[in-house]
Input
Amino acid sequence: MAVTKSPQEGKLSGEVFYPSPEVVAQANVKDPEAARKEANENLESYWARRANELEWFQKWDKVLDESNKPFYKWFVGGKTNIVLNAIDRHVKTWRRNKLAFIWEGEKGEVRTMSYHALAREVCKFANVLKSMGVTKGDRVTIYMPRILETVVAMLATAKIGAVHSVVYGGFSVEALHGRIEDSESKVIITADGGNMNGKIVELKKIVDEALRRTAAPENVVVIKHTGKEVNMEPGRDFWYHELMTLPLTRNNQRCETEVMDAEDPLYILYTSGTTGKPKAVVHTHGGYQVGVYSTFKDVFDIKEEDRWWCTADPGWVTGHSYIVYAPLIAGATSIIYEGAPTYPYPDRWWGIIEKYGVSVLYTTPTAIRGLMRFGSAWPNRHDLSSLRLLGSVGEPINPEAWRWFHKYIGKERCPIMDTWWQTETGMFMIAPMPADPLKPGSGTRPYPGVEVDVVNEEGKSVKAGEEGFLVLKKPWPAMLRTIYKDPDRYVSTYWSKYPGMYLAGDSARKDEDGYFWIIGRVDDVIKVSGYRLGTAELESALVSHASVAEAAVIGLPHEIKGIAIHAYVILKAGIEGNEKLAEELKQHMSHEVGPIAKPEKIEFVATLPKTRSGKIMRRVLKARAQGMSEGDLTTLEE
Ligand code: WT7
Output
């Protein structure tokens, strides 16, 4: 790393990478410290300034309403629609001719979409949804591969004021069924399949199976993408391309953007919690657009000329915030790649960066570790000189992966923005800006206006260097507003342990320079390859197999995935545990929850450690598996 002069130089401890003068000179935020200070001094005026960078049908009366904590409200009285900022305002300017998306399929097909074309598609599809009776507030489930129609479907839903519920295309039957049922969606949007690793993921087949387990929604819209033959239920299932060329939509390329209250829901997104019951967080139009836009602009320093590539799937919050909404609001050009990073060779991503001249790349530690193992010869075959900034998200990045990413992809030129946030937070909470000094493995400092702390069991701040619970002490505009249909759970999950503080569910440390280091989840959530899965959801999927009586899952360290699932299974009487059954259970998990939920290892056991009240003591299983002391086991029954 080119060590350069920086005002903080020599003042920070540990391994520090200072930004080069070129990076600072062109940064959107040249003095991150001043921005943090501005927001600390007056949170509301800071966010009002950022909100004023966007368009509103009508400006707010009050920036933040704290009268009914923890049900905070932002931009109260404001009227907007995120689509007004993501599309409508751009097509009135030269940006109508700018590419919103460059898409590449796994087989190498390329499609591009300008802001103008995106606007047309969204209007047409919005009219299709309206023709199916979808109105303001109705839910629409989107279960799709990584294609442009996913984005069109989300925006069309938002445009008419309906609420999207995107279910990750890597989830399978039971996970999808639970999410469709809980959301009471009127329409499901899916595809005849997705391409992944040279194979077709049969999404429509999974939808059919999920719908057999639930009261069917009124309509299913199917995008023809892979060409694979699928079952079409007459009167229920419709082809997207046919709907989009019906006289109704062909002649109707206009659709008014619904005027929404700032606090009206934009989407729900299911995420794993500590119980098996589906839990969807609710995000809104007003505050969310301000939060994702400003974090994107400042942290990823987006410029008009950039080509932004977030490798996530639109089905996760990363995709919602930083593939769909923030980049569009910022008027950026995004790359979307449908397939696997190693298909057909482990240089697919590096080839994409070279081909499209990607300038900012945002990805995950798992992906970096996975590609790193193939060696630097693969990235070295490509010209990666278009890159100027890198990003990481989803799980702690180990310093070894950080250094490899920095050296072989960023060529020691590109700062790495390690962004800590959650489905619930909607936007980055702890993240550097390019002008900040970096420490490999740390998300650095809070974003302006965000107050982060590490506290002990009693809620008192711990000393620098000590581990504790990560909490957020001030509201932020993109925060979740509630849990869908379950406000009590919103309060009890996030706001009850420490009054006035949001409990993130992570353990962390803050060092003497105020840099935050995330250690991992402290609840019953496992981060597999950065994907969030709940132990309860996984265990209930195991128990749904005819041979299984009881099950417990834990996460154990894994070289590439970060954490991998280990399952302990008690079989029903008379059933013998063997290799074949273990394999069958892995397949069962893949079929019910999704391939990411496939356990690394299944162990058949006779008993499970439990408390007197019958709660499985996962920490005992974990300690045993890692050959560590089992700690205080006095509450153990067996
Ligand atoms: C959990 C949230 C945020 C979008 C994707 C994940 C972990 C997230 C980081 C990071 C260390 C991280 C935390 C957090 N996490 N980003 N940069 N460093 N850990 O969203 O699925 O809601 O998961 O992911 O454990 O609580 P999510």
